[in-house]
Amino acid sequence: MGLINTIDHALKNLIYSLFWWFIDPLEHERLYGQLVDVIERNLDANDPERLVAPDNFDVTVNNKIFIKHAHSIKKLETVVGDRLQKYVANKDYELSFPKIKILIISSATVSKRNAQIRCWFSTDEDEGGGIGAQQRKYTLKVISGDGQGLSWDLKPGNTYNIGRLSALDICLPFDNISKNHASLYFLSEDNIKLVDEGSANGTFINDETDPIKDSRELQLTDKIKFFKINPIVLTLFAE
């Protein structure tokens, strides 16, 4: 029986992989070509001041397919990042920050169905937003409403999916929370974005009465509210 289950699981994974391979709207080669083009226009081996990577530019994708499969986004980041790393190494640039990072920020609610791609150079120490940032502890905590007192330690440079599903990074198993309610892009202490993933009851910031649309910049200690009446309220703070 165990062998049959193993074979069944393997077949399902194969079919699933092939299915998404053929309809993935943001394929590796196109994204890699666009990044190389922008890097070439920004890098100049004769001018160290221009050794910078492109930052926050858009490519068009079908988000209704793209955003629902976070595992394919991470794979895309890794594959394209590795290729760009080899490309820059072969160009023999002398870079002060030699490691390339890629972060894909997307949502089905983003207007014009654009995926925002952030690409930048860093050192190994810059992995989580710099040495100073590494020494600080960041916590996302429920300060009122259902789940009050729940908290999660966050690290700069990571993306956190928030919702009712237990498999998500931040699980809020309560009735008014959508299965995949929102995504928190914690790039650094000074670069935090929150995206509502088409939730049924909305996501609100501080005392605003209108739910957020598309992505929103956040500051530490801002209040994140899920749904409007008797909301679950969270805040992200540093220690």
Outline the structure in words:
The structure is a single chain. This protein is 28% helix and 29% strand. The protein has five helices and 13 strands. With 239 residues, it is α+β, with helices and mostly antiparallel strands. The radius of gyration is 20 Å and the shape is globular. The strands form three sheets. It has a five-stranded antiparallel β-sheet with strand order 5-4-13-12-10, with no helix packed on it. A hairpin with a 5-residue loop joins strand 12 and strand 13.
Structural class: alpha+beta
Low-confidence stretches: 63-68, 107-112, 126-134
User: Quick one: biggest sheet?
Assistant: 5 strands, antiparallel
Q: For the terminal residues, how far apart are their CA atoms? A: 51 Å
| Chain-averaged pLDDT | 75
SSE order: HHEHHEEHEEEEEEEEEE
- The portion of residues forming beta strands comes to 25-35%
Cross-sheet strand order for the largest sheet: 5-4-13-12-10
Helix content: 25-40%
User: How many H/I helices?
Assistant: 5
What is the strand tally?
13
Radius of gyration: 20 Å
Name the shape in a single word: globular
Q: What order do the helices and strands come in, and which of them pair?
A:
Layout: H1 2-23, H2 28-42, E1 57-60, H3 63-66, H4 70-90, E2 99-105, E3 114-122, H5 131-135, E4 138-144, E5 151-154, E6 158-163, E7 170-171, E8 182-188, E9 191-196, E10 203-205, E11 215-218, E12 223-226, E13 232-238
Parallel strand pairs: 6-7
Antiparallel strand pairs: 1-3, 2-3, 4-5, 4-13, 6-8, 8-9, 9-11, 10-12, 12-13
Helix pairs in contact: 2-4
